[in-house]
């Protein structure tokens, strides 16, 4: 099954001390996203095209797919900042760098 990405973002993961996360994450990692315009957390699947593992305190480019509520992408725009969580624990901050067309086959993975 091909995964189609909704947008690209630059993510900054908090340090181990700030987030309590001690292990790295890899493509396929799922987190909850909190946008400033919504009180609801939205689940996203992350793909890291430039690296295999992302550690606490790293800043990395990612391609993101919104799960469950893809309609939220209509409110997302380049330059929008957001926080991301693992459960209730804040893991870091992000900024949308590019909206990805849903009709393009160039931005998908198996």
TrEMBL record:
<dbReference type="InterPro" id="IPR009001">
    <property type="entry name" value="Transl_elong_EF1A/Init_IF2_C"/>
</dbReference>
<keyword id="KW-0251">Elongation factor</keyword>
<keyword id="KW-0342">GTP-binding</keyword>
<keyword id="KW-0547">Nucleotide-binding</keyword>
<dbReference type="GO" id="GO:0003746">
    <property type="term" value="F:translation elongation factor activity"/>
</dbReference>
<protein>
    <submittedName>
        <fullName>Elongation factor Tu</fullName>
    </submittedName>
</protein>
<dbReference type="GO" id="GO:0005525">
    <property type="term" value="F:GTP binding"/>
</dbReference>
<keyword id="KW-0648">Protein biosynthesis</keyword>
């Amino acid at each position: 099954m091909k995964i189609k990405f909704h947008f690209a973002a630059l993510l900054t993961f908090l340090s181990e001390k700030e987030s309590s996360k001690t292990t790295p994450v890899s493509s396929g990692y799922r987190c909850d996203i909190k946008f400033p315009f919504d009180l609801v957390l939205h689940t996203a699947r992350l793909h890291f095209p430039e690296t295999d593992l992302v550690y606490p305190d790293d800043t990395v480019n990612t391609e993101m797919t919104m799960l469950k509520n893809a309609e939220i992408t209509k409110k997302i725009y380049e330059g929008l900042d957001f926080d991301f969580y693992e459960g209730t624990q804040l893991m870091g901050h992000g900024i949308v760098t590019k909206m990805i067309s849903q009709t393009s086959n160039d931005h998908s993975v198996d």
